[in-house]
Design goal:
The protein is an alpha/beta fold. It has one domain: NAD(P)-binding Rossmann-like Domain (Rossmann fold). 42% of the residues lie in helices and 15% in strands. Strand 2, helix 2 and strand 3 form a beta-alpha-beta unit. The longest helix is centred in the middle third of the chain and has 22 residues. Bound molecules: NADPH dihydro-nicotinamide-adenine-dinucleotide phosphate. The site of NADPH dihydro-nicotinamide-adenine-dinucleotide phosphate (NDP) has 27 residues, from helix 1 and helix 4. The site of NADPH dihydro-nicotinamide-adenine-dinucleotide phosphate has 27 residues, from helix 1 and helix 4.
Length: 250
């Protein structure tokens, strides 16, 4: 077994949901850079177009599909559009609709559960038959959250969905291990995306002050964990959750 950590995914095919922006975009970029073919599945046609243009130099390795992960028919169509079989799936698409429990309505509950948990079922179920049957190197990586492990004020819907992601990860890890899969979750802490970068500097500094490593996370922190979990070197890691949060809950 090689101990080279400059991961190479030449000849591997990855799907990243919610990959047109934020964390998912960085995951897609790093898999492309490491030689994988990547299919980005995302909701908005505009965001997909923008991602495609930013990733222009990888056009030969890139496929995109406009998908609503909450919609099973949409997932089926995306599967049918795939030009290749699948080795690596990163279930990353997710939304928040934060409200304290007293104010939380059925609409916010349904939207978050449907996207962050049922969406993961819809995508994984529809793609299942598209994984390379003969490969012993099949990877499913689910993006959960530190909130799924510890809860958070105003996020009952999100915490429930992200905890559900962890339960599903462990169960699939048990069920699919013999079939050549590993299934793991990554639980990000507070990660800087375009949205968070627009927040006032003092607020960001205050938040960073709560993290033992004294900084907020970068999207590359999450992408690095995903590439590691997808690598051959991580083949004995299965059914676990890797927290990538700078130790925020310590
Ligand atoms: P972003 O909003 O930047 O990106 C999420 C992407 O998912 C967007 O492109 C969004 O599209 C897409 N998406 C949303 N709903 C659907 C849908 N129904 N079908 C297809 N695509 C959809 O979020 P982040 O990059 O911040 O988050 C990525 C993941 O990481 C999420 O699962 C999130 O819960 C998790 N996470 C993020 C943390 C953070 O601090 N940023 C912390 C912990 C976990 P559109 O914008 O067009 O709706």
């Amino acid at each position: 077994m090689s101990s080279n950590l400059n991961f190479s995914f030449n000849g591997k095919n990855a799907i990243i949901t919610g990959g047109a922006q934020g964390i998912g975009f960085q995951i897609a970029l790093q898999f492309l850079t490491a030689g994988a073919n990547v299919s980005i599945w995302d909701y908005s046609a505009d965001a997909l177009e923008k991602a495609k243009s930013e990733l222009g130099k990888f056009s030969g390795q890139l496929h995109t599909a406009q998908v609503d992960v909450t919609n099973r028919e949409s997932c089926q169509k995306a599967v049918a559009s795939l030009p290749w079989n699948v080795d690596i799936l990163v279930n990353n698409a997710g939304i928040t609709r934060d409200k304290s429990f007293a104010k939380l309505g059925a609409e916010e509950w349904d939207a978050v559960i449907n996207t962050n948990l049922t969406g993961l079922f819809n995508v994984t179920k529809n793609l299942f038959e598209k994984f390379n049957a003969s490969s012993s190197h099949k990877r499913i990586i689910n993006i959960s959250s530190v909130v799924g492990l510890y809860g958070n004020f105003g996020q009952a819907n999100y915490a429930a969905a992200k905890a559900g992601v962890i339960g599903m990860t462990k169960t699939l890890g048990k069920e699919l291990g013999r079939k050549g899969f590993t299934v793991n979750a990554v639980a990000p802490g507070f990660i800087m995306t375009a949205m968070t970068k627009a927040m006032p500097k003092e607020v960001l500094e205050q938040m960073a002050g709560k993290v033992p490593v004294a900084r907020l996370g970068e999207t590359s922190d999450i992408a690095n964990a995903c590439l590691f979990l997808a690598s051959e070197q991580a083949s004995y890691i299965n059914g676990t959750v890797i927290s990538v949060d700078g130790g925020i809950v310590l």
